[in-house]
Amino acid sequence: METVTPGRSLDRLQRWMLGASFVLLAACGVGLLWTPTQFFRSWLVAWLFWLAITLGSAAAVMLHHLADGAWGRAARPVFESAMLTLPLVAFLFVPLLFGLERLYPWIRDPVQEKAPYLNVPFFLVRTAVYFAVWFALVRLLDRRHLLVSAPGLVLYGLTITFASIDWVMSLEPHWTSTIIGLHFIAGQGLSSFAAALVALAFLARARLLPIEVNASHFRALGNLLLMFVLLWAYLSYSQLLIIWSGNLPEEISWYLRRAGPSWRWVALALVGLHFAIPFFVLLSRRVKEQAGWLAVVAAVLLLARAVDIFWLVVPAFQPDRPVIHGLDVLALLGMGALWIALFLRHLKGRLAYARS
Amino acid sequence: MNFPPIYGLLAEFDTSASLLKAARQARAEGYRTMDAFSPMPVEGLSEALGFRHTRLPWIVLAGGLFGAAGGFFLQWYLSVIGYPLNVGGRPYNSWPAFIVVSFELAILAAAFAAVLSMLACNGLPQPYHPLFNVPRFESASRDRFFLCIEAADPSFDPDKTRRFLESLKPHEIFEVPH
Questions:
Q1: Cβ-defined contact of B61 to A237 (cutoff 8 Å)
Q2: A195 to chain B, minimum CA–CA distance in Å?
């Protein structure tokens, strides 16, 4: 029998991804010189997308340590490799520090009653705290200090709540929603499980997995994916219902921008791609037991995640123009290629380790 | 009516693992009309017995969709046609507010569909069953595991089946009278 080293084909993919990321990120660099404002907007959206997979994976590792389950034993190498990309994600945040003034209106135009919270020094301190907490969690989990899982999930919930307020909600500083933190947690869970399913289906197809991953593992992961789809829909709808019922000017205007005539189609696409279609497809046991089909659903959900983040962020800058800029695509793909290259590097080590 | 003289042969096992093994072997031996009884769910047992997936999920889905559509219609009819009220200037057909009740009714109707069609499909409640003629069978709900091969099975033969069951080393074998 031919022995397959996990390295060979992944090596090639890793090199391709690394090469592609250099080209794409160089193009982003040109974009930064050409149209800096657009660059920072695109960078923020792309960065939030990849951050979600990394942090969601760390949460999935903690969740599995607490609750156990066959799904996690199959998917753990993938989740752990994804979580270890945190240093890259932190590094990719650095460019945003130079664009804060272009992104956040409260810097030029301070909101009186919120100024004690929304000011640049405190913003930077908070950001440093988030990353410190996340680095500590990932470090401890990587060293198998599993006791950190329970307090770690609490810290994760708190830091994500504040981070989503800082990075996304404050783009429109007059708007408030108490659900946005949970909405981000659901989104990050969904992102990480969808990404893990795409990776697992690919690895299973290429016969690169050290342990057998069978239909029941995929069904369990598919059920968890369905759970996150429902959670995301539930939280999104709760926010809509509360704001729509209250109908307060500073709150409803957020939805008027996002579901008004110009962005309506994006909002409806989200209802379909992020909820209705995956929900009905994932009800089927047959789909959940076939890695290939499940990977297709997961890929659609990843696309929906990108659209969701785009829809949350971009209307703040261009309420009347629901258009994608070339830099949006370049940043998302360039960052992604670099992220995947690092992810594969960690994954190869984990697969070889699990094999021996 | 031409009943076989007995309902079937019942073998008693001490552990869920030996029951699972026995069910797998009986299936490999060609027995199909059989059932297993245990005080708690045994992972893999229904596959070993050859259970097929039923239509129940589709009935539950239909129930859920009916509940959602019915719940929505109820509110839409009331608010738009039956008793239109101006609430804070919102349109009569204020669908975001209708979702909650539609969702609850979807769950309610799906649950009713699940329970009622489960009962309709498996024939419960059943006040009499031949297995209750075996006094030991009571312990199926406490600490014993049973496999029953029914006489209705085409490959059932009183002597051969008994010898097969004995080869599985059960605790005891019972004849189940009608």
A1: no
A2: 28
